């Protein structure tokens, strides 16, 4: 489990650095690992972290690894909060597990799926990945809430995350299910959608729960 | 429809019209039966079942018009009415009226009817609109794929509907063969085995409804299935919910839609080019635009006021009351009565101050009828154009504040026609809480057309400041009471999901028939009550009760509201019909018995006054006697209180209008 522990220490150093106090004392104080001293030693031996008295500094290799961990953790946070409405403690717990298991291609998919979010739910920067640079030319994220879709753009429903079962049934009886194509016509004073030849007015609450991508 | 010589043979099975909302079921019904039922351009016009008879080649059979449904798994009262009628009439055949432009949704109903095992034919209606838009499905292919007779129709132009009755002989259950996957299917067959064989519709359909958690079937279950089996059904459903992660209805709908999408793909569409959006589509868009929508609404209001308030309430009323009745009928009747009837009592009964001709008929025919007539005409135009649902979009946010959503504006606007009819229309709202709030607000603050016209006529003579004050007070009371009611009344509010029909040019024929039907209904409903009210006043006057009543009501009418004692009469007959009460005030104002301030105070009070008898009875029918009595007991003191406040504030501030 040393790799797991190392990841946690690297992650903490990154966070402390963001806060501007990457010191040995702080690290030992904040770490939740059993043997932070030993783990730090391992990291120094592997050439990932340099320690000069109090100050902690990540080497280039260490920085890269930490960057990946932070990226996965914060993307997981966004995913869990935006899509599954988990409360913060559950979100934190699961995000901590996600950061260790996501492979690079999966991370890229998650990032693309979320539309390359720049910050995590706590407002901290998410390190950019390769995928983020690739799409700079495209303006729109891949998947957005229907509420944020461009007016008149044809979109396709990817998934729906409704608060109530009844709402889901009602929407599905109107033909609003994943895979359906529709257009958002207006946002004010109510949201109006066009699906096939039908025009339907709905609340913002509902369009917030419908995730779409450009068709 | 005349009898054709021989007595026609009565067919045993019935014919039921089923389909999505606003697809034209009532138009088809009207064509087949020759009976008129209200037809409009917004979803939810029909909230009750209408029965009629159709004669076809020497036979006669009963035909039933139903409220529109998006699904036979009911979400609101009106949808439940339709599902229940299908359960209550086994052995019936269905004419499904489909919207050619929206076959995806229409076929959802076809699939559910197929599962119920009901033989049907499909009228693919509004074929003209679908062709204009280049989305007309190929009907011949549809017939081939699902094995059910189908025909393109344009019901409002009577195209294709004449062939429906003949096609019914070929009605069969659609051949759909849809499978919902292993887990759901095994639960369905388990459920089916628990449903008694005597079930009125296909057991597969009931099994699916029960798996979807349809609470509205509880009653049926209690009556037809043993408690043991019911609990086993619950186990089956719970197990399936666990296996699929809940949301069974949604999954089933999703599979149905996939099936439909691939069917529609197979069918293909008729070749044709879509025409660009004409003026109707442009108007449809801007009328719910946050910016242009408001001036459009104000313009519509202005037109309505000019037509009903000025043309109806001033020009026509002047002509009828001052001219026809004042110069011809009443003097003529007086002359005849004085010549022919020697008894003073009988003379008074006809032409005295509380006479049948001088009061009841002249109020009903000369004051209220022209106003109601112009209102129904103008309202019909609004209904048929498709503007009303767009208004719902505009006001959704305001209605959220009073515990409802934009949909509630439909019954509220309808209330301006008649609160009684509108109270029935509250069925389109999905929760009991919303229905009660809207019913209360209708009874409290929405003046019906008859009353509104009389009131506008009076206010018009006082001036715009009085009109604006009156409107502002009513809106404030409605919002305040609505806001409080939404806090006090338990229950939930529903989502705002409303279909917006296309803007259409109203058809003169339908407009004329609808207006005449409503006027006829008004005459039948109102005139007897006007006569009864006059009779009560006449008798009360004779035996001296009227004076006594005026004395008894004096502390309230004179003391609190600062109105002349005679106003008590208007309030008394206001118990029978509010418009009749308003007409009494109208008469007093004309005679110069009321100051401008008194006009405003009395009008605010009579507008808020307790609901008329018909409205009260409908509230009892829909919500029970307790709720109705509670509402009346709340509304009456509130009306007097608000009237008194207006009086006191105006006097303190020195406003005399």
Secondary-structure map with pairings?
The complex is a heterodimer of chains A (215) and B (657).
Chain A: H1 2-19, H2 24-30, H3 36-45, E1 49-52, E2 55-58, H4 60-84, H5 88-101, H6 104-113, H7 130-134, E3 143-145, E4 154-160, H8 165-173, E5 181-186, E6 191-195, E7 198-202, H9 204-208, E8 210-214
Antiparallel strand pairs in A: 1-2, 3-8, 4-5, 4-8, 5-6, 6-7
Chain B: E1 9-10, E2 15-19, H1 25-33, E3 50-56, E4 59-65, H2 77-88, E5 93-99, H3 103-115, E6 120-125, H4 127-132, H5 139-146, E7 150-152, H6 164-167, H7 182-194, H8 203-211, H9 218-224, H10 227-244, H11 248-267, H12 279-286, H13 293-340, H14 344-351, H15 356-385, H16 388-401, H17 409-415, H18 419-425, H19 432-445, H20 449-462, H21 464-488, E8 497-500, H22 508-542, H23 545-560, H24 567-574, H25 578-590, H26 596-608, H27 613-623, H28 625-653
Parallel strand pairs in B: 1-4, 2-4, 2-5, 5-6, 6-7
Antiparallel strand pairs in B: 3-4
Question: Would you kindly provide a written description of the structure presented here, covering whatever features stand out?
Answer:
The complex is a heterodimer of chains A (215) and B (657). Chain A is an alpha+beta fold and 215 residues long. Chain A has 3 domains: 2-58; 64-137, Winged helix-like DNA-binding domain superfamily/Winged helix DNA-binding domain (Arc Repressor Mutant, subunit A, Orthogonal Bundle); 143-214, SH3 type barrels (Roll), CATH 2.30.30. In chain A, 48% of the residues lie in helices and 18% in strands. Chain A contains 9 helices and 8 strands. Chain A has helices spanning 2-19, 24-30, 36-45, 60-84, 88-101, 104-113, 130-134, 165-173, 204-208, and strands at residues 49-52, 55-58, 143-145, 154-160, 181-186, 191-195, 198-202, 210-214. In chain A, a hairpin with a 4-residue loop joins strand 5 and strand 6. In chain A, helix 4 (60-84) packs across helix 5 (88-101). The longest helix of chain A has 25 residues, at 60-84. The model of chain A has no long low-confidence stretch (mean pLDDT 83). Chain B is of the alpha/beta class and 657 residues long. Chain B has 3 domains: 9-170, Rossmann fold, CATH 3.40.50; 182-267, Helix Hairpins, CATH 1.10.287; 293-653, no CATH class. In chain B, 64% of the residues lie in helices and 6% in strands. Chain B has helices at 25-33, 77-88, 103-115, 127-132, 139-146, 164-167, 182-194, 203-211, 218-224, 227-244, 248-267, 279-286, 293-340, 344-351, 356-385, 388-401, 409-415, 419-425, 432-445, 449-462, 464-488, 508-542, 545-560, 567-574, 578-590, 596-608, 613-623, 625-653, and strands at residues 9-10, 15-19, 50-56, 59-65, 93-99, 120-125, 150-152, 497-500. In chain B, strands 1, 2, 3, 4, 5, 6 and 7 form a 7-stranded mixed beta sheet that branches. In chain B, strand 5, helix 3 and strand 6 form a beta-alpha-beta unit. Chain B is elongated, with a radius of gyration of 28 Å. At the A-B interface, helix 8 and strand 7 of A face helix 3, helix 11, helix 16 and strand 8 of B.
């Amino acid at each position: 489990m040393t790799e797991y522990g190392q990841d946690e220490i690297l992650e903490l150093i990154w966070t402390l650095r963001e806060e501007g106090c990457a010191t040995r004392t702080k690290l030992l104080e904040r770490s939740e690992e059993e043997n932070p001293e030993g783990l730090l030693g391992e990291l120094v031996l592997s050439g990932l972290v340099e320690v000069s008295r109090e100050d902690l500094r990540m080497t280039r290799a260490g920085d890269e690894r930490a960057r990946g961990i932070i990226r996965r953790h914060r993307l997981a946070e966004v995913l869990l909060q935006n899509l599954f409405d988990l409360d913060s403690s559950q979100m934190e717990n699961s995000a901590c597990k996600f950061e260790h298991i996501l492979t690079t291609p999966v991370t890229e998919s998650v990032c693309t799926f979320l539309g390359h979010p720049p910050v995590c739910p706590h407002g901290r920067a998410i390190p950019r990945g390769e995928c983020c640079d690739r799409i700079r030319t495209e303006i729109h994220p891949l998947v957005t809430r229907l509420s944020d879709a461009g007016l008149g753009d044809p979109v396709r429903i990817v998934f729906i995350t409704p608060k109530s079962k009844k709402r889901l049934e009602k929407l599905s009886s109107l033909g609003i299910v994943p895979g359906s194509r529709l257009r958002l016509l207006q946002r004010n004073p109510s949201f109006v959608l066009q699906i096939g030849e039908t025009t339907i007015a709905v609340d913002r609450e509902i369009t917030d729960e419908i995730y779409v991508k450009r068709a | 429809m005349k009898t054709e010589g021989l007595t026609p043979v009565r067919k045993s099975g019935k014919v039921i019209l089923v389909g999505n909302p606003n697809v034209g079921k009532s138009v088809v019904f009207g064509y087949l039966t020759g009976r008129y039922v209200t037809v409009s351009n917004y979803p939810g016009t029909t909230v009750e079942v209408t029965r009629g008879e159709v004669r076809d080649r020497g036979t006669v059979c009963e035909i039933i018009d139903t409220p529109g449904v998006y699904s036979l798994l009911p979400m609101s009262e009106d949808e439940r009415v339709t599902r229940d009628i299908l359960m209550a009439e086994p052995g019936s055949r269905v004419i499904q009226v489909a919207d050619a432009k929206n076959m995806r949704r229409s076929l959802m109903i076809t699939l559910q009817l197929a599962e119920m095992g009901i033989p049907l034919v499909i009228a693919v209606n509004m074929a003209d609109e679908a062709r204009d838009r280049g989305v007309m499905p190929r009907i011949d292919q549809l017939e081939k794929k699902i094995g059910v007779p189908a025909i393109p129709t344009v019901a409002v132009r009577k195209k294709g509907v004449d062939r429906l009755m003949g096609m019914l002989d070929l009605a069969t259950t659609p051949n759909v063969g849809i499978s919902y996957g292993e887990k759901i299917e095994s639960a369905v067959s388990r459920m089916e085995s628990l449903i008694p064989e005597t079930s009125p519709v296909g057991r597969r359909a009931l099994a699916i409804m029960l798996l979807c958690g349809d609470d509205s079937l509880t009653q049926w279950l209690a009556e037809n299935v043993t408690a043991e089996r019911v609990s086993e059904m619950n186990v089956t459903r719970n197990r399936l919910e666990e296996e699929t992660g809940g949301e069974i209805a949604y999954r089933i709908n999703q599979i149905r839609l996939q099936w439909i999408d691939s069917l529609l793909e197979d069918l293909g569409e008729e070749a044709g080019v879509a025409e660009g959006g004409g003026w109707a589509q442009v108007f449809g868009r801007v009328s719910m635009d946050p910016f242009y929508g408001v001036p459009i609404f104000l313009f519509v209001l202005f037109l309505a006021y000019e037509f009903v308030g000025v043309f109806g309430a001033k020009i026509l009323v002047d002509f009828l009351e001052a001219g026809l009745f004042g110069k011809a009928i009443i003097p003529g009747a007086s002359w005849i009565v004085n010549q022919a009837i020697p008894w003073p009592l009988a003379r008074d009964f006809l032409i005295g101050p509380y006479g049948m001709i001088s009061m009841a008929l002249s109020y009903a025919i000369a004051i209220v009828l022209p106003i109601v007539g112009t209102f129904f005409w103008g309202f019909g135009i609004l209904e048929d154009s498709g503007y009303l649902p767009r208004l719902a979009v505009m006001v959704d946010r305001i209605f959220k504040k009073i515990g409802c959503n934009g949909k509630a504006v439909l019954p509220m606007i309808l209330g301006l026609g008649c609160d009684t009819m509108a109270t029935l229309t509250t069925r389109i709202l999905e929760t009991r809480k919303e229905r009660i709030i809207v019913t209360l607000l209708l009874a409290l603050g929405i003046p019906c057309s008859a009353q509104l016209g009389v009131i506008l006529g009076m206010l018009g003579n006082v001036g715009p400041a009085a009109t604006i004050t009156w409107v502002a007070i009513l809106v404030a009371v409605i919002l305040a009471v609505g806001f409080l009611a939404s806090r006090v009344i338990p229950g939930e509010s529903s989502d705002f999901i409303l279909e917006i029909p296309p803007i259409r040019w109203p058809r003169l024929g339908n407009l004329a028939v609808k207006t005449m039907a409503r006027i006829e209904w008004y005459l039948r409903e109102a005139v007897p009550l006007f006569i009864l009210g006059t009779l009560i006043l006449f008798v009360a006057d004779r035996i001296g009760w009227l004076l006594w009543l005026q004395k008894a009501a004096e502390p309230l009418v004179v003391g609190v509201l600062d109105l002349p004692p005679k106003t008590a009469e208007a309030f008394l007959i206001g118990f029978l019909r509010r418009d009749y009460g308003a007409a009494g005030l109208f008469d007093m104002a004309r005679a110069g018995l009321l100051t401008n301030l008194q006009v405003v105070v009395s009008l605010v009070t009579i507008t808020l006054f307790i609901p008329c008898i018909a409205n009260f009875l409908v509230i009892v029918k829909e919500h029970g006697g307790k709720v109705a009595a509670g509402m009346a007991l709340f509304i009456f003191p509130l009306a007097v209180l608000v009237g008194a406040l207006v009086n006191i504030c105006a006097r303190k501030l020195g406003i005399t209008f």
